[in-house]
Amino acid sequence: MDIKKNINFFALILLGCLFPLLSASPGWTQTCTETEIRANLLKLKDFYDPSGRKIAQCGKDAIQPLISIIQNKQGNTTAQRFTATEVRGNAVWALTRIYDDSPEVINVLLGVIEDKQDDKWVREAAIRNWNNIFILNQNEERPPEMVKALLAVFKDKQDDSSVRSSAASALGNIGEGSPEVVQDLLAVLNDKQDDSWVRGDTASALGRINEGSPEVVQALLAVLNDKQDDADVRDNAASALGDIGEDSPEVVQDLLAVLNDKQDDAEVRGDAAGALGRIGEDSPEVVQALLAVLNDKQDDSWVRRNVASALGNIGEGKPEVVQALLAVLNDKQDDSEVRSSAALALEDIGEGSPEVVQALLKVLNDKQDDADVRSYAALALEDIGEGLPEVVNALLGVVGDKQDDSEVRHYAASSLTIKLSYLLAETDNLSIQELEQWIELYKPGLAVEDIDEIRRDNLRRNINNLERRLQQKKESQKNRLLLQITGLAILLHVLFWTGLIFLYPKSPQVRATFFWNPKVRKIVGLWYVGLALTWVPFLRERLFEPFRESLLSDADLENFNPQTYFAKSPVQHEASGEIQPLNKAIPEINGQILLVGESGLGKSMFLRHLVQSSEGIVVYLPAHQCDAGVIAAIQEKLDDYVKQDPYFLQSLIYHCAIDICIDGLNEVTPDTQANLIKFVESNFKTNIMMTTQPNWTPLPTEMLKIYTLKPLKYE
After folding, report:
1. What whole-number percentage of the chain has pLDDT above 70?
2. pLDDT tens by residue, 239-251
3. Membrane-spanning residues where (predicted)?
4. For 100, how many CA atoms within 13 A lie in the half-sphere containing its CB?
């Protein structure tokens, strides 16, 4: 089956990409001598086997031994020379899959390519594989000397035709579309005396270069339309036109003419059909021509097979195309290869319609049907019917049936693996319940023991990955639920305390129970309520709002007349000596201030003025009330329940919850005076205003500003 060839081709590409990764694996211990590498090259089948892994493990240490092996052509007998050729060809392949594009490596490959006396198999290996070095290194630039060498080989008619064909393919693979290269390719294409194999690969190279210049297109059309030319060259020309994607009317009409000419070569007609599909020309004329060939069972099966594939490229949204492909698929009397192509075409354009899915399932489940057709039906189902348990059950039924054809079971397993890959990519969009349903649906695949080991392992790995995703989703959902519950609880808690803050000024019970009860505040308020009450200015003031009047009871503000104090009394700042009017020097209670003045100069009256004009919470304390300490004096002005939490009160005062005014420090004992000054120093953030007579003043400190009130002078 062609599908197997395609899989093997892509497997080789994958192996080439994995080679440098294998070389980094620490799990292999290998001596990298020339003898060891030669022995491994001789046993080398592919880089899955131990021999390949041993070479890969050497990495760049293998470069010199590989070069030595490539340059050693010795062999006394035919068998020895054959063995040497095999080993050297494998060495070239291995060398091009090591991350090294150094001049030394390039020159070795150039030497092999240019040496006509060397074995053609080794030269072909160098020509076909040298480009891998630059692909692996993600280097888009190719050495000019390499392109020049390939052109020299390609143009030399005396050289081996298979080597020249390889050079043409190499020029196409690197996409070298310089005028010189294109002209050389055209010269060989137009030379009918040249080898047909070389000319065919030349046409393909022009298609891969994607050089859509009129000159190239006309040259390819000339070859296509010349029935006297070699059929292999013509079908490659048709395919190249499809690769270029030229959809001009001339190209389309010429391809249609070849397709419709049943007297023409079947290979050429088939590639003309494929070219129409790749060009994407879906005009009614083209579609009808393709349908006519598809429906003609007397036509060549190769042509019809390519027609079915072309319709898969251009038939989307065309019911007549879907119906025609279904008719072919359902007709067991039709050619199996045509039916297989119809199955894959339906995968491209069927859009998962129930009719298409049911038709593919019917073929898959019919053990009497052709095995190849059933295999293609399984492959077609990998991309359609994704959300249908019926499709998965059918594929699992085939995989688990040991009596069924091994090829069909293999491709059914492949389809399941692909479906699981798609499902894994969509797990973020699936609910936990949907994931659980899919896992239960796929689990029977784990019980299959005799299916191809790679496919079975992929099935198991993908199913296990689904289960891990399910657990991750459950854990994520659990965490989200926990976060939501936690967030809701915090929100409710905040709202609860916000309500308490609102009720606080009006409810002594709320104040006593929740705010000034240390145990309740710490337990019910968690860790943040106490911090918020201490650090947020609004909340600090809110706690003292109910006590605003009692805190000022000793100030006797009801009987205070603002006109009785002299705002312009001079006051001198002790530190600087500057004299200013009293109301300018001390406009408000800010910082720590001691006002010194003789009796009768208005110290107390000024203090009462500041208290009355303050917008914040202020406590007014005669100094003699502070014998037991400032905190105790303040507590006496608050409700009794405040006394149960003096530390909280102290913390609030430290964080500037209230401003403090203390009048008459000279009237108290030295011990009280010392304690007051100590309180002021320890609460350096708090705004504190004090008054005293000159017979007692403390030593000035960095924080305490001392002003001396002078007598008012009348002019």
Report:
1. 87
2. 999 888 877 889 9
3. 481-503, 523-540
4. 22
Note whether residue 323 is domain-resident.
Answer: no
Q: Each residue of 504-519: pLDDT tens digit?
A: 999 999 999 999 999 9
Q: 583 lies in a domain?
A: yes
146-188 residue pLDDT tens: 889 999 999 999 999 999 999 998 888 876 567 888 899 999 9
Provide the pairing of β-strand 688-692 with 659-663: parallel
Cβ neighbours, 10 Å, residue 284? 8
Position 82 pLDDT exceeds 70? no
Residue with tokens 């854990």: 475
* Residue from 338, 340, 418, 342 nearest 375 by CA: 340
For residue 704, give the 3-state DSSP assignment. Answer: strand
Residue 185 within any structural domain of the chain: no
Q: Check: CB of residue 156 under 8 Å from CB of residue 128.
A: no
- Among 227, 322, 214, which residue's Cα sits nearest to residue 268? 227
pLDDT digits (tens, 9 = 90+) for 671-709: 999 999 999 999 999 999 999 999 877 766 677 899 999
Between the CA atoms of 667, 672, 678 and 682, what dihedral angle is there, to the nearest 10 degrees?
-90
Looking at residue 95, its pLDDT comes to: 80
- Which residue range forms the structural domain that includes residue 572? 544-709
Q: Sign of dihedral through CA atoms 385, 387, 391, 395?
A: positive
Q: What is the mean pLDDT of residues 204-226?
A: 87
Strand partners, 689: 593, 661
366: phi then psi, degrees, rounded to nearest 5:
-90, 100
Task: Name the domain count of the chain.
Answer: 1
Query: Looking at the predicted structure, is the pLDDT value of residue 638 above 70?
Result: yes
User: Is the pLDDT score of 9 beyond 60?
Assistant: no
CA distance 327 to 344: 14
Please tell me the distance from the alpha carbon of residue 7 to that of residue 520, in angstroms, as a whole number: 73
pLDDT tens digits, residue range 420-455? 888 888 888 888 888 888 888 887 777 776 655 545
Distance CA 130, CA 458 (A): 32
Among 251, 258, 306, 261, CA closest to 283: 251
CB 571 within 8 A of CB 531: no
Is the Cβ–Cβ distance between 329 and 359 less than 8 Å?
A: yes
Structure tokens at 636: 């006496």
86 confidence band (pLDDT: 50, 70, 90): confident
How far apart (Å, rounded) are the C-alpha atoms in residues 412 and 487? 49
AA letter at 703: M
- What's the distance, CA 13 to chain centroid? 25
Closest CA to 419 of 449, 462, 457: 462
Pairwise CA distance, residues 465 & 554, whole Å: 78
Within 13 Å and on the Cβ side, how many CA atoms surround 2? 11
Q: How many CB atoms lie within 10 A of CB 581?
A: 13
* pLDDT confidence bin for 5, thresholds 50/70/90: very low
- Which DSSP helix (H) or strand (E) runs through 596? strand 592-596
Q: Are 494 and 487 in contact (CB under 8 A)?
A: no
How far is it, in rounded angstroms, from Cα 691 to Cα 604? 7
- List beta partners, residue 690: 594, 662
pLDDT score, position 362: 95
Half-sphere exposure (Cβ direction) of 658: Cα atoms closer than 13 Å: 27
Does 646 map to a domain?
yes
Report field, pTM of the whole predicted structure over 0.70: no
Name the β-bridge partners of 706.
594
Q: Check which CATH number belongs to the domain holding 681 and give it.
A: 3.40.50.300
